Amino acid sequence: MAMLEYQTAGESHGPGMITIVTGMPAGVPIDKDLINAELARRQGGYGRGGRQRIETDRVEFLSGVRLGHTLGSPITMRVVNKDSRMDDVERTPPVYRPRPGHADLSGSLKWLTTDCRGTLERASARETAARVAAGALARGFLQLFGIEVFGFVRRVGSESTDAIVGTENWQELKTARDASETYCPDADATQRQIAVIRQAKIDKDTAGGLCEVHVFGVPPGLGSCVDWRSKLDARIAFAVMSIQAFKSVEIGMGRRVAELPGSQVHDPIHFDRARADEPGLGFVRTSNNAGGLEGGMTNGQPVVVTGAMKPISTLLRGLPSVDLNTKEAEQSDYERSDVCAVSAASVVMENMVAFEIARAFLEKTGGDSLAEVQAHHDAYMQLVRVLPLDAPITTIAKD
User: Fold this and answer.
1) Per-residue pLDDT of the chain (399 residues; tens, 9 = 90+)
2) Strand 148-156 relative to strand 159-160: parallel, antiparallel, unpaired?
3) Cα distances (Å, whole numbers) of residue 218 to 91, 125, 197, 291, 361
4) Which CATH topology does 5-385 take?
């Protein structure tokens, strides 16, 4: 059994975005409609740019799938770019004036060129279409085990929602989110957020915000505390921070833990035998400030992650920059872009968190086939529910 991994390839205006997923067991049914629905959501949201009217993202499977089920071999997915003009110099001319906040200058210095075009094509958030495809594939796998992922926009600029998310109302909030132009499950907050984005467009500026993801039904014990690289909270933070324009990640209460005493931060543990069949195995909490992760491992509570996305780096009015050839002061170049992409970013984040949960799930209960994974999962859950184990602990004496 290989570790669940994915790799993306492709440029913003190349022929398409490719993602290769390895480590997915054989026999997993492919929910192509789910993947395409997530790709469509990624293209939506108030404040998106003109490219979203050109592209209609749909996934194509090039390998690893037969008759709607995984084979256990690498799964290759492609999302075609209709706007494919990478080698058309007239339509994608050199870019010599880097945009502050983007990868333009760093990439040009790294690859010893004054033309930012190559860097900006790969650094473009168009690459996240491939990531959403990988995450949605993993998400369909998680649903087979009753694990659900729900993401939404908490804030755009100064306007946010106070919506409280829980196991009892997340599906209702999902319906409200899907009816919102900003992917916020609060109709009043949505209108205020739209006003922020509209004003940013008038000002030839951009807007950022906060995205939030909740994962329900996660069993305890995913991740590990024995090695820093295996801590699930760290891996989730890595995945979210790798999304274009994200500048911070918080688990549960996040940075507010620094402001309060431990008695107001740590989640008290109680046991309710009547709830032993729930993911928490009967261990219940009056709060979830830890965000479902303690010591780098899931604890049976919902996993809660918040990510902060900065405003898009491409402004209609430009920003002070320099011409890399002449070193003279200039305004930064404009590339077709969005005024606000927080809604789309929330979809990317949702699916990246899903992928990391699926990766940790397979490390704990993995196998070469779905049947093996199911058996391993059921055996683990049976054992953890009967703690302390009836069988005595034995020691093998050395001669």
Assistant:
1) 679 999 998 877 778 899 999 999 999 999 999 999 999 999 999 987 655 555 689 999 999 999 999 999 999 999 998 766 666 677 788 999 999 999 999 999 999 999 999 898 888 888 899 999 999 999 999 999 999 999 999 999 999 999 999 999 999 999 999 999 999 999 999 999 999 999 999 999 999 999 999 999 999 999 999 999 999 999 999 999 999 999 999 999 999 999 999 999 999 999 999 999 999 999 999 999 999 999 999 999 999 999 999 999 888 888 999 999 999 999 997 777 789 999 999 999 999 999 999 999 999 998 999 999 999 999 999 999 888 876 555 554 454
2) antiparallel
3) 47, 29, 35, 12, 9
4) Chorismate synthase, AroC fold (3.60.150)
* Residue 76 CB coordination number (10 Å): 16
User: Are 180 and 347 a contacting pair, CB within 8 Å?
Assistant: no
Domain residue extents for the chain:
5-385
C-alpha–C-alpha distance, residues 321 and 368, integer Å: 53
C-alpha separations of 216 from 176, 261, 269, 279 in Å: 18, 28, 19, 9
